Amino acid sequence: MTLVHPPLVAPMIEGIETEGPTVASTNPARHGEVVAEVRLGGPEVLVAAARVARAAQRGWADVPAPVRGTVIGNFGRLVEDNADALARLVTREIGKPLGEARGEVQEIVDTCRFFLGEGRRLYGETVPSEMPDKQLFTFREPVGVMMVITAGNFPVAVPSWYIVPALLCGNAVVWKPAEYAAACARALTQLAQRAGLPDGVLSMVPASGEATADGLERALEAGVVDKVGFTGSTAVGRRIGELCGRHLQTPCLELGGKNPMVVAPDADIDLAVDGALFGGFGTAGQRCTSLGTLIVHESVYVGFRRRLAAAVENAPIGDPTRDVLYGPLLDARFAAGYERHLELVRGHHSTFGSTAVGRIGVGAPRRGFVGDPAEGLYYHPVVVDGLLPDDELFREETFGPIVGLTTYRTLEEAIELANLPGYGLSSAIYTNDPATVFRFRRGVSAGMVSVNNSTSGAEAHLPFGGNGRSGNGSRQSGRWVLDQVTRWQSVNWDYSGRLQKAQMDTTIPEADLDFRLNS
Fold first, then answer.
1. Which of 54, 133, 254, 491 is 20 to 30 A removed from 151 (C-alpha atoms)?
2. Is 443 helix (H, G, I), strand (E, B) or coil?
3. Which residues are paired to 263 by β-bridges?
């Protein structure tokens, strides 16, 4: 069904009228269904939004932190009260199964609940001085204006990881969402703005990638953006990191992943298969934390492969409004990219898990498909066996329903294979041996390690982020993200009535360091 009058999503900036090209955000599960018409802002719109945010930020920072926390609590309550409508919009606009969409919305609520309390815990410290009649203090201060640029695979949860703590700490935010998830972005922005935020503190600007890069560069040169938060590809993250570095800024970069899962000889095989199925194919493999490569001990390989094949073959796939493992790919551009990755399957590989490889359709049906595959961007799940360390498919993020499989003999070899692609976001190991767990944890380069759980699944109060090709070591979520959205200020207060010079005027009592006890 095509909507006769789809809603218009335009840049949401207080007091600024914008004109620009319009694109359609469509339902990837139903060809021709336009979810929203999206008016894109140009580079000048992003700069204008940053200037508005700059003007509003100081007044927002002057609001006491516990009161800002109350506003964040209001935001969470509004999301909770509108949870079903927001989840259904997520499913409709990006094709995420409704159960997962509801979990994503709950993550916003959890994030708001956590940071409601942090409004009363933005602690500094009182530090003892080496001199008399002098006190030292530290304070957290907002960085200023934060530009947040996010992908659309988690169109509302991941933006909240940036927006909620940034606002709590007294920053203003300009948010550039993915164009293909703009209706979700508008809905989330509306809920946040109605929670008690002053005008201009949060704005949303849909824009193309080219316009975003140009607008960010102009805003940094104009000095109206103080921090950048980016979730997306490693390639784009490198460009943003280089640009911010020229302005002596450190961005918060959450990038791609080639996340390994190790299956040890003593693993619960059925549990490991469950973790591989959800980690590899949930959200159609379009998570930054999706399982990339299964690294299975050779002693359990045959049994694991047999059970995994059965699980993948029997997994329900299709209409995301029904009970399925995954629905369509996010957008036509991701479908095209995924098809290019399928070309990396080589002659020494074998594939299993479905009746075909590639797009599901009349010429390549999927047994047990739920719904009509001709309506959307549906693709077969694929497990590629026989991966070698030199294979591109082993080393590169694929962002789709494809998982690699290889074997190992020693834990050291498994760790080496896990680290080889150079990503370092998420990882998992299935074992019941504590020594194996701690050896793996210490050796793997990932910022997140799961034991007997999948590579996907973040809780709102733990740090989220990666290393290497997965990010620059910055972290989101929990109290750790506060270091991304605040800067430390130190104060020394001398009330002695005279100038006391550190390191020079410090009085140290004399000691007899030559003293020795009689034996």
1. 54
2. helix
3. 296, 430
Place of tokens 């802002």: 41
Identify whether the C-beta of residue 136 lies closer than 8 Å to the C-beta of residue 146: no
Q: Please indicate whether residue 104 is annotated as part of the active site.
A: no
User: pTM score, two decimals?
Assistant: 0.95
> How many other CB atoms are there within 10 angstroms of residue 352's CB atom?
18
Angle at 442 between CA 416 and CA 300, to 5 degrees: 55
pLDDT at 19: 79
Q: In the chain, which residues have pLDDT < 50?
A: 1-4
C-beta of residue 415 within 8 angstroms of C-beta of residue 444: yes
CA distances from 234 to 65, 243, 332, 349, 515 (A): 34, 14, 20, 26, 61
Topology annotation, domain 259-451: Aldehyde Dehydrogenase; Chain A, domain 2 (3.40.309)
CATH code of 8-24+35-255+473-488, in short, is 3.40.605.10
* CA 67/CA 122 separation, integer angstroms: 12
3-state percent helix, strand, coil for the chain, nearest multiple of 5: 40, 20, 40
Q: What is the pLDDT of residue 325?
A: 98
Provide the percentage of residues in the chain whose pLDDT is more than 70: 99
**pLDDT tens per residue, range 350-378:** 999 999 999 999 999 999 999 999 999 99
Residue from 254, 313, 413, 510 carrying the catalytic annotation: 254
Going from N- to C-terminal start, the domains of the chain cover 8-24+35-255+473-488, 259-451
